[in-house]
Write a structure and sequence with these properties.
The complex is a heterotrimer of chains A (268), B (368) and C (307). Chain A has 268 residues and is mainly α. Chain A is built from eleven helices and no strands. In chain A, α2 crosses α11 and α3 crosses α10. The longest helix of chain A is centred in the N-terminal third of the chain and has 34 residues. Chain A is globular. Chain B has two domains: 227 residues, P-loop containing nucleotide triphosphate hydrolases (Rossmann fold, 3-Layer(aba) Sandwich); 121 residues, Nucleic acid-binding proteins (OB fold (Dihydrolipoamide Acetyltransferase, E2P)). Chain B contains eight helices and 20 strands. The two termini of chain B are 13 Å apart. The relative contact order of chain B is 0.11. Chain C has a single domain, classed as MetI-like fold. In chain C, 71% of the residues lie in helices and 4% in strands. In chain C, the strands form two sheets. Chain C has a two-stranded antiparallel sheet with strand order 1-2. A two-stranded antiparallel sheet of chain C has the order 3-4. In chain C, β1 and β2 form a beta hairpin. Chain C is globular and about 75 Å long. Classes of the chains: A mainly alpha (268), B alpha+beta (368), C mainly alpha (307). The interface between A and C is large, with 95 and 96 residues.
Chain lengths: 268, 368, 307
């Protein structure tokens, strides 16, 4: 194309970009390929097979994984629902109520879980639950997840809300709608893509979390990541690669969905 | 300020009294008083930032006055929220709800007022007929052209039969041809519905074409209120003379005022006579505004006040011919004649000597 | 329109009266479960440890004393500086720094390349870069370990090409941890730099080229200063989570390449069972990170004022 004297093109940068993508994707692709390995050993390749996927669902460890998966999904759905609701209300409070003094303070509070290193959050949450004598189990995991899901849900929702000018709501008020009607009939439908996007991100973040869950879960309560970590500590087994591939596929599916939804913008 | 102080009367659609609006340190409106009559097509005209949209938003209920009051048919609007005012707005961006069909958009106001959804739909259907968009009832606003969206926005704002319709630069997003057609259509709709229109624009041509009366605004103040013709031909001050149409501003000293006539002279001593104006006294140094189309050049003086000049530039502009001439004592004037056998008195070559004549009553003294 | 923009009514305030109610859930959840725990952690770091986890509610400086001072095996020698934990922190900083530099070396050209694609293609490129971030960090780290291990695909491939004679021992080295961190947080480097380069006005580069600057000079003297805030943001976003990471050092580094994350985890989940010490180490880590973020915020504010 415009090779001759394109100012912007810097030699080697394309190659480094491809290297970057290679580094990002190679491990995932390798694990995906090996999850279809027929061999019982992870070192030798003996041809394609769905054997280890079968093993995940029916093998000796399937019970453990099924319980862990059920816990993971239960927590992820609940945490995403609660945090998205909180984030939607907060975004409305931040972006649709004019200027106020506590605004940057509120924003700092909302993004606090993003700034504190995960291990510190994990320690702090564990200590806090210990101090208020909250029994460690599904509830403690859920609370911890809601907290760190809030900023992830908040960001796409607030981005969307900032993109919607005030004119739609003014038009509704002008046409005799009450504020409540304006909120439910105009703002929420217009916000839908942002809310769906935020919900999906919160869901993935909750589903993926290991460190905080590992700290606040009670003995014997496992989610998929903690169960996988426990298994990996005893060595990488082929069935772990099958589970990993399933989770990886799910994450990619949800992120793609979230991306496509947030791209569909009816207000432009 | 204005030529006539507005009188408070229940006949007026809108009575704004001493309205002040401040945003923090910024004063958007400085003590505005304005009366708009029932059934009037009234335009707020001014450059961006002059406060016209702020005034409109106050009438709509989106902003509150800091001081002063606004009455609608004699009733103080106070802090009444927009959804309790019988006033509807056509937004600059149209603000059509993208997740609703055209019909749902038009019926929204009626539904909110408590009509059943069948009633709302029927009435919305009639409104769509009025703006000739019935065949698009089930489309989404995003699938319509800009001009069609504009008409849907109009239909939506008119459907609840408001006492007052506010239009915030509704034509600014349309291309020139469509804009011109819409001007006529808007004027027609206003006559047909009998609703008072308040129209905000920065486009003087738009204002002149449609309005019964115009208020020219600048920096939060009313500069002049009056009919289109009055504002064009009898501008009060330099801002109005400059903002509406093109004009020549001549610095003059007023020598004598006798009744309705004033005599003044230019820097070089040329005497000119014109209409006297309230607020301009004898001895004042002020500006005289003369529209270019009311000046004409001749080879010999056409009257006693003709000014000797030399042609600097002659430009053909299609519909007319514009000449720039330089008077002997310095100031330059722009002359315009129409490109027709009647209007085109004489075109002078560049550098030619000529005399510039003013039509009777063309000069207007400005108060600042 | 314009008057509104000038006057500042452009910020929508439709739900002004409901503000308190709208923000209440977020405030209460975050104050109670995000801020309060950090404060409680600070309190715990000054309490007395109970063996096998938990605390005794008795004030004690033992945790910080243990972190910074060495009083000998029986605690009766004159105090000397305890280097063990400082060394772990230092190693963490070093590892995180190395990972940051690696990310910068690959991330900057990538961000630049993406930002100079046609506007329509950019979102897709950005999306490709972000996808891996959303894949479970544990799974990514395990994948990395699987790829790098002695009999793994990387060594198989290198042996097959003949580039090496015997398998490389990468897992359980510092390099493996650096690679793991690099891989974990690379998207964080690309995104802010991309945003900065995308905003950059290439007419400036054209002007420089017109004034006889070479491509590299233009990049170094014109573009780089303009996108510096983005570069700094990227470095912070990689460095901070790397510093406190647990999975990469734990799975890829082995016992000899202990980092802060593992040290802290050990106090709560492992055998050490010293909660006040774990809380103290977490406080020190948090302080480091907050200082870094503060410096970053000031730098960004300065950059904003300049432009």
């Amino acid at each position: 194309m415009a090779r001759r004297s394109d100012l912007r093109a810097i030699p080697g940068f394309r190659a480094l970009t491809l290297l970057c993508l290679f580094v990002l994707y190679a491990p995932l692709i390798v694990v995906t390929i090996y999850s279809f390995n027929a061999s019982a050993s992870i070192t030798s390749w003996e041809g394609l097979s769905l054997r280890w996927y079968w093993d995940v669902f029916t093998g000796p460890e399937s019970g453990k994984f099924k319980t862990a998966a059920a816990n993971s999904f239960l927590i992820a759905i609940s945490a995403a629902t609660i945090s998205t609701t909180i984030a939607t209300l907060a975004a409305t409070g931040m972006i649709r109520t004019g200027r106020f003094r506590a605004r940057s303070l509120s924003f700092g509070l909302i993004s606090l879980p993003l700034m504190v290193p995960e291990i510190v959050t994990a320690v702090a949450t564990l200590i806090f639950f210990n101090a208020i004598a909250l029994e460690r189990g599904l509830l403690s995991i859920l609370i911890a997840h809601v907290v760190f899901c809030i900023p992830f849900a908040y960001l796409p929702i607030s981005a969307r809300m900032q993109g919607i000018g005030p004119a739609y709501e003014e038009a509704a008020l002008d046409l005799y709608a009450t504020k409540r009607q304006t909120f439910t009939r105009i703002l929420l439908p217009l916000m839908a893509p942002g809310i769906v996007s935020g919900y999906l991100l919160a869901f993935i973040v909750s589903l993926d979390d290991f460190i905080i869950t590992n700290f606040v879960k009670g003995a014997g309560v496992e989610t998929l990541p903690t169960a996988i970590f426990g298994a990996v500590k005893r060595g990488i087994q082929p069935n772990i690669m099958a589970i990993s591939t399933l989770l990886l596929g799910l994450s990619i599916l949800l992120v793609t969905l979230s991306w496509l939804v947030s791209k569909s913008d009816t207000t432009k | 300020m204005q030529t006539k102080m507005p009188e408070t009367s229940s006949q007026n659609a809108i009575d704004v009294q001493n309205a002040v609006k401040r945003f923090g340190n910024f004063t958007a409106l400085k003590q505005i008083s304005l009366a708009i009559a029932d059934n009037e097509f009234f335009t707020l005209l001014g450059p961006s930032g002059c406060g016209k949209t702020t005034l409109l938003r106050i009438i709509a209920g989106f902003d509150e006055v800091t001081e002063g009051s606004v009455r609608l048919y004699g009733e103080d609007l106070g802090a009444l929220p927009p959804n309790r005012r019988p006033v509807n707005t056509v937004f600059q961006s149209y603000a059509l709800f993208p997740h609703m069909s055209v019909l749902q958009n038009v019926g929204f106001g009626l539904e909110m007022l408590g009509s059943s959804s069948t009633e709302a739909r029927e009435c919305a259907g009639r409104m769509l007929e009025l703006v000739q968009l019935s065949q698009f009832a089930d489309r989404r606003p995003g699938q319509l052209s800009g001009g069609q969206q504009q008409r849907v926005a109009l239909a939506r704002a008119l459907a609840p039969q408001p006492k007052l319709l506010l239009l915030d630069e509704p034509l600014s997003a349309l291309d020139l041809k469509l804009r011109k057609a819409m001007r006529i259509e808007l004027k027609h709709l206003q006559r047909e519905t009998g609703i008072t229109f308040i129209f905000v624009t920065h486009d003087q041509e738009e204002a002149l074409t449609m309005s019964d009366r115009i208020a020219v605004m600048s920096e939060g103040e009313l500069q002049q209120v009056g009919a289109a013709r009055e504002i064009y031909e009898r501008p009060r001050n330099r801002f109005v003379a400059n903002f509406i149409g093109d004009t020549n501003l001549l610095e003059v000293t007023v020598d004598r005022i006798e009744g309705a006539r004033a005599t003044c002279h230019l820097g070089g001593g040329h005497a000119l006579s014109c209409e006297a104006v309230d607020g301009v006294r004898e001895g004042a140094r002020v500006h005289l505004s003369v529209r270019p189309e009311r000046l004409f050049a001749t080879a010999e003086p056409a009257g006693p006040e003709a000014l000797a000049a030399r042609v600097v530039e002659t430009v053909f502009t299609g519909t007319g011919i514009t000449s720039i001439v330089e008077l002997e004592q310095g100031p330059r004037l722009t002359l315009r004649s129409s490109n027709s056998e009647r209007g085109n008195r004489r075109v002078f070559e560049q550098g030619a000597a000529c005399f510039v004549n003013m039509e009777a009553g063309a000069g207007r003294l400005l108060i600042d | 329109m314009a008057a509104g923009a000038v006057g500042g009514s452009s910020a929508s305030s439709t739900y002004r009266e409901a503000r308190g109610w709208l923000l209440l859930p977020a405030w209460s959840v975050l104050l109670f479960f995000s801020l309060a725990p950090v404060i409680m952690m600070l309190v715990y770091s000054f309490l007395t440890k109970e063996h096998r986890g938990g605390v005794i509610w008795e004030f004690s400086l033992a945790a910080y004393d243990q972190f910074f001072l060495d009083r000998g095996l029986f605690g009766d020698e004159p105090p000397r500086i305890q280097w063990t934990y400082i060394a772990i922190f230092w190693r963490s900083i070093w590892q995180a720094g190395a990972a940051t530099l690696m990310s910068l070396a690959v991330g900057f050209p990538t961000a630049y390349f993406i930002a100079t694609r046609p506007a329509k293609a950019r979102p897709l490129w950005v999306f490709l870069i972000t996808i891996p971030y959303w894949v479970n960090l544990l799974i990514r780290t395990v994948s990395m370990k699987f790829l790098l291990r002695e009999q793994g695909p990387l060594n198989d491939f290198l042996l097959w090409t003949g580039a090496i004679d015997s398998p490389l021992q990468i897992v359980n080295t510092n390099l493996a941890v650096q690679l793991g961190l690099f891989y974990s947080y690379l998207p964080f480097m690309v995104l802010p730099i991309y945003a900065a380069v995308e905003r950059y006005d290439f007419a400036l580069s054209e002007a420089a080229a017109d004034l006889y600057a070479s491509k590299w000079t233009t990049l170094r003297r014109i573009l780089l200063p303009a996108v510096k805030p983005g570069v700094v943001a990227g470095c912070i976003l990689v460095f901070v989570p790397s510093l406190g990471s647990f999975l990469a050092p734990d799975l890829l580094g082995g016992a000899r390449n202990f980092m802060i994350g593992s040290l802290i985890e050990e106090q709560f989940k492992g055998n050490a069972g010293n909660w006040p010490f774990g809380a103290a180490a977490s406080m020190i880590l948090l302080t480091l990170v907050l200082l870094l973020l503060l410096a970053f915020a000031r730098q960004q504010a300065r950059a904003e004022r300049r432009s």
